[in-house]
Structures are given as structure tokens and as C-alpha cells.
Amino acid sequence: MADDKIPMTLLGKKMLEEELKHLMTVERPTIVKAIEVARGHGDLSENADYSAAKERQGFIEGRIQSINGTLARAQVIDPAAIRSSKVVFGATVVLEEPEAGKQITYQIVGVDEADIKSGKIGITSPIARALIGKSAGDEVVVHAPKGQVHYEIVDIQYK
Q1: Can you give the pLDDT at residue 105?
Q2: Tally of domains within the chain
Q3: Which of the residues 24, 50, 72, 92 has an alpha carbon 20 to 30 A from that of 146?
Q4: Does residue 52 fall inside a structural domain?
């Protein structure tokens, strides 16, 4: 499983690279200084600042390793280059919920770049899994936490 490629869009890769750069050039040096300052406060066993700084350092180093691993296994996909009449990774899908009579638009993206508030859903989400391989006009049933939700695919775009 360690060789598994991680699909992501060009934008998703850029966002991860920017986060990595920030962690390495801003966060890491800042936390090293905080640890030095906290060390200067004496007894480390009772030094809350030192403990908090070391914990933050562990988080930063873990996130740096995680991003490096993700980027090393990244399979970058440019949605604008995809030519498909079916829903695949990178698709922007316009759905209609017939019962509610409303339309929603989602783009299927990598797990690290998913952000439901901006209409980006991760490839492993229940709705993305229900949409993959479908065409415009198809009805899909999503097994969501609130129960089954029916959608009709109105349009599929790659941009």
C-alpha cells in the first residue's frame, strides 16, 4: 500500500507545497526559538512553556513528514486536460436534489484539498464515490449520515 498514488489537482499540490514551505521557513524556526527561550526558564520538568513548545514542534515535524510523503506519492491531475463524458477525478459536477428542488456544485478533488464550504469534496467521500463513473442525466443515491439522498447529475465539467 505504500506505493499507492495519491490523486490531487494542480491547485491541491500548490497548496501543499505552500504549507510545507511555511512550516519549514516560518513555523520550524519560530518553535526552535521558543524552545530555547523556555529552556532558559529553568527546571524543564515543571516548565509548561517548554512542554507546549516541544508538543508543537512534534506536530510541525509530523506535518512536514506527512506533506513530504503525500507529495512524493502525488499523482497530479489537471482537470482542464480531462476529456470525459463520465464523472472522474477532477470533475466539477452540477447536481439537482429533486426533493428539495435545489442545485449544488461540487468538484471532486484529493483528500488533502477537500473543503466542503468551497464546494470541493474528497475522492473518498460518500458523494464522490456515488458519482464516479456516472453521466449527465443519471440519478445517484448517496448514503449519507442523514440517510439516503437522491441527486440527478445535471452537468459535468472539467475546468
Answers
A1: 95
A2: 2
A3: 92
A4: yes
Nearest-CA neighbor of 96 among 132, 133, 136?
136
Tell me, yes or no, whether 68 and 84 share the same domain: no
CATH code at position 100: 3.10.50.30
0.90 exceeded by pTM: no
Domain-ending residue, one of 50, 77, 104: 77
Cα-to-chain-centroid distance, residue 16? 9
Contact 12, 81 (CB under 8 A): no
The grid coordinates of residue 38 equal: 523556555
- Would you say 53 and 32 are in contact if contact means Cβ atoms under 8 Å apart? no
Average pLDDT of span 113-126: 94
- Which residues, including other chains, have CB under 8 Å from residue 76's CB and lie 6 or more apart? 8, 9, 10, 13
